[in-house]
UniProtKB/TrEMBL annotation:
The keyword Zinc does not apply. The keyword Repressor does not apply. GO terms for molecular function: peptidase activity. Residues 534-680 form the MITD1 C-terminal phospholipase D-like domain. This is ATP-dependent Lon protease. It holds the Pfam family BrxL_ATPase. Coiled coil: none annotated. Residues 10-141 form the BREX system Lon protease-like BrxL N-terminal domain. Keywords: Hydrolase, Protease. InterPro entries: BrxL-like (IPR014061), BrxL_N (IPR046838), MITD1_C (IPR032341), MITD1_C_sf (IPR038113). It comes from Desulfobacula phenolica. GO terms for biological process: proteolysis.
């Protein structure tokens, strides 16, 4: 228990839960986090260890007895039949059988259909009609002679979500926390350890909550794999739905003209599209057109009738390339399907969350501290959709007049959402308001910068604001613009005071010099004596690898940990010498370890995931047909480097000693005796 945990339990007693308990109770139950936390909130919303242990046992018992696993559906049916009545936890969806004029329920895991549901239940819980809701159902079984009558009877149905909350108590309790404490509480509530994240990283995580508290908010997040882009939208709230970007139709999303049935946007607060990126994905052009109208006007047409809705739209997907590569060669929307790669559609996006800034999720990043039961926070955020905080910066700042109405809407909605999340009590200092405003402007500017690349008809815009006290104008830049100003030259604000790094301007000259140097390299042989020091991969390889776009390493002994670590250090050399805005493919041909093959593959996957961030595209294959005795490196620009010992050139050193220079710097390691030969080959 940290001091923050104590404070959380003091002011939100009964509404918070220890976040590591979710994994403890989940087991093999494939249920959303909000379902598990609903149960934990019933029995474990306390700081008392004995009560928590008892509560965990109770929750596990509830899941064991009442949660329906698909592979045990026959057993549960039998239990209901034999007992006559049994409570189950399952995902239930309802459809209207217009031929019989009745509502019929289907149970996802139990596998039964056409169970009668009374109209009052459907009216009370309309989301049952769209994609289904996780519920606790009191089921009965009664056999009828009439075979057309279902023996299954719903005695009582209760969706798994909070029944009520006190908003005033929430606001009063918020006032007891300073801003940093509150941010950490929210970060713990979505499952992450705030000690592992910086301030900006925390804010990026919390941006994902804006669609829950802001109506008709359009958010996109594109970035590397493994950053948890879809987690919040799949597990966090009973008011949001996550669907595959390629599995949606106009009738399902908006309206079925034949039946008149309203689609997902009419029932859910958030519709999130997972795996949204992918150039080759086929998308219905009509869907894109109606989506553009909905995202701009909060309404869609059904024949002659116009229907309004308030669902926020979220698009998340993976990128294949590094940030500098995208900025130089394409743009930040390049991964989208062709039909969505449309400036009119993209201009409706309010905030582009830079997924490349979000850390890849690691085990130590998960929180074991206290956070809100997610269903409670989901209800709070939902209630905040009725409030508007977009004008709270007006007392201190004003956006410059040349920012367009659409840009201003995007900025205001992001600002409003972040203020609701961070300062629901509206007690923020001028400095805090400024920070949120700049963050909101940056996210919209990221969209507009890319639109100007995609469509030349978009004019350059000054993303700036003025201070009311002195009239000072402050220009806002995105972080990638600060890092790589050479790719924003045509859009840079001439009034900006940010200077371009001279080294960035020199980069083309450096590349030309590298090509000239490569042509001067000669074939040669290097012989290193045993115990020799001062040898590094940088010295041995960098001149011969510079400028290569594809490098193939053949070495049968990249198997156990220290050998794989050597290979990782070789990739570090490549990462250091390659231009930031280009990518290099490195392919390893090796043999699978007889005893630790799975661990070998796991290590390769970690390398692949982490090196992709630096623009090093690592792949591997196992040659099972022969034992590879030859060890060499071949580049696509004309060099073959023969390695008699492979990359295994260093004598034993203590890898676990973080304070040892030989561990951290290769030049302090003693070498084994080895030879390297550099040969020119046809590229």
């Amino acid at each position: 228990m940290t001091a923050l945990d104590d404070k959380i339990n003091e002011h939100f007693s009964g509404l918070v839960v220890r976040k590591d308990l979710v994994k403890t109770v989940k087991g093999n139950a494939i249920v959303p986090s909000y379902v598990l936390e609903y149960l934990l909130g019933q029995y474990c919303a306390t700081a008392d260890e004995e009560s928590i242990k008892t509560g965990i046992d109770t929750v596990k018992d509830v899941l064991r007895k009442h949660y329906v696993h698909r592979n045990e559906s026959g057993l549960i049916k039998s239990v209901i039949r034999e007992k006559g009545r049994h409570k189950i936890i399952d995902k239930v969806s309802v459809a209207l059988n217009d031929a019989k004029d009745v509502y019929e329920a289907s149970f996802a895991n139990l596998g039964i259909k056409k169970v009668l549901v009374d109209s009052d239940t459907v009216k009370k819980h309309p989301k049952l009609l769209v994609s289904g809701v996780w519920t606790i159902v009191d089921m009965e079984y009664e056999h009828f002679e009439d075979k057309s009558t279902s023996p299954w009877i719903i005695n009582k149905l209760k969706p798994i979500q909070l029944s009520h909350f006190n908003y005033d108590n929430y606001i009063a309790a918020r006032k007891q926390f300073n801003t940093d404490e509150w941010i950490d509480l929210l970060v713990q509530s979505i499952g992450f350890n705030p000690e592992k994240l910086g301030k900006r990283s925390k804010l990026l995580q919390l941006v994902r909550l804006i669609p829950f508290c802001e109506r008709n908010y359009n958010l996109i997040e594109l970035g590397p794999k493994g950053t948890g882009k879809s987690h919040v939208f799949s597990d966090f709230s009973p008011h949001g739905i996550l669907i595959s970007g390629g599995e949606i139709t106009v009738p399902k999303l908006f309206v079925n003209n034949n039946s008149g049935k309203i689609g997902l946007v009419g029932y859910w607060d958030i519709v999130a599209f997972d795996e949204f990126a992918g150039k080759k994905k086929r998308v219905n052009k009509a869907l894109v057109d109606i989506m553009k109208n909905y995202m701009a006007n909060k309404s869609f047409s059904r024949g002659v009738e116009t229907i309004g809705a308030e669902a926020s739209m979220v698009f998340v997907g993976n990128t294949r390339h590094t940030l500098p590569y995208m900025l130089k060669h394409t743009d930040l929307f390049d991964e989208l399907p062709e039909q969505y790669y449309d400036s009119a559609f993209l201009d409706r996006i309010h905030f582009y969350l830079p997924g490349w800034e979000v850390d890849i999720i690691r085990g130590e990043m998960f929180s074991n501290g206290y956070g809100f039961v997610v269903d409670y926070l989901a209800e709070i955020l939902r209630s905040l959709r009725n409030h508007d905080y977009s004008d709270l910066y007006a007392q201190h700042f004003n956006l410059v007049s040349d920012i367009s109405t659409r840009d201003k809407d995007g900025i205001n909605k992001t600002f409003s959402g972040m203020m609701k999340i961070l300062f629901p009590h509206k007690e923020a200092t001028e400095k805090e308001i400024k920070e949120v405003l700049q963050f909101a402007i940056e996210g919209r500017k990221r969209v507009k910068d890319q639109l100007m690349k995609i469509d030349s008809t978009y004019a350059a815009v000054r993303f700036a604001y003025t201070c009311n006290d002195g009239g000072k104008t402050i220009h806002v830049k995105s972080l990638e613009e600060e890092e790589y100003p050479q790719y924003f030259g045509s859009f840079q604000d001439k009034e900006s005071e940010t200077e371009i790094d001279p080294q960035q301007l020199e980069q083309p000259r450096v590349q030309d010099a590298a090509k000239e140097k490569l042509s001067e390299l000669k074939e040669r042989q290097v012989i290193v004596q045993e115990n020799q020091r001062g040898v590094t991969y940088d010295k041995l390889f960098d001149q011969y690898l510079q400028g290569a776009r594809k490098i193939t390493v053949t070495d049968s002994y990249i198997r156990i940990f220290y050998q794989i670590r050597n290979f990782m250090e070789f990739l570090e050399t490549i990462a250091k010498i390659k231009p930031k805005d280009d990518e290099v493919k490195v392919h390893l041909i090796t043999a699978e370890d007889e005893f630790k093959g799975p661990q070998q593959v796991e290590n390769f996957m970690k390398i692949q995931e982490n090196c992709a961030i630096a623009g090093v595209r690592f792949s591997w294959e196992f040659d099972e047909n022969q034992i590879l005795h030859a060890r060499h490196i071949v580049t696509d620009h004309g060099w073959k480097i023969l390695l008699d010992r492979g990359l295994d050139i260093f004598q034993h050193y203590e890898m676990n000693d973080s304070f040892s220079l030989s561990n951290r710097l290769q030049q302090y390691r003693s070498c084994k005796a080895f030879e390297i030969t550099y040969l020119r080959v046809d590229s």
